[in-house]
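Project standup — Tuesday

K.O.: blocked on the structure for the chain from last sprint. Re-posting the sequence here as requested.
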Amino acid sequence: STMECKEHLKAHPGFTKDYLIKQGAPMDTQHLMSVLFYCNFDFLAAALKASYLKRSAQETYTQLKMRHASYANFAKLLIECVHVYGHEMSKKQQYMHSIASEV
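H.V.: unblocked you, prediction finished:
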């Protein structure tokens, strides 16, 4: 239900102080959109992941940081979604999450 969903999308205690988000604050549009973009646009998720890795042995750390800078705000929002709004998964949920197809 909508009410149940709204309850799950509130900031949980723990990391809220680290990210300057008030405990109990609802997930805002920026955070929600970052999750939707990451989940619905494979090319964007792949580009973000690639921005954490050197393209070649010749690429310097400074070059890597410059390349990742394009994705820094997007990455920050995703990290906050996980740490502030996410729920810890049980061992069974973790196992089921890692299966790519129906059993």
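K.O.: great, moving the ticket to review. The chain has a mean pLDDT of 86. DSSP finds six helices and no strands in the chain.
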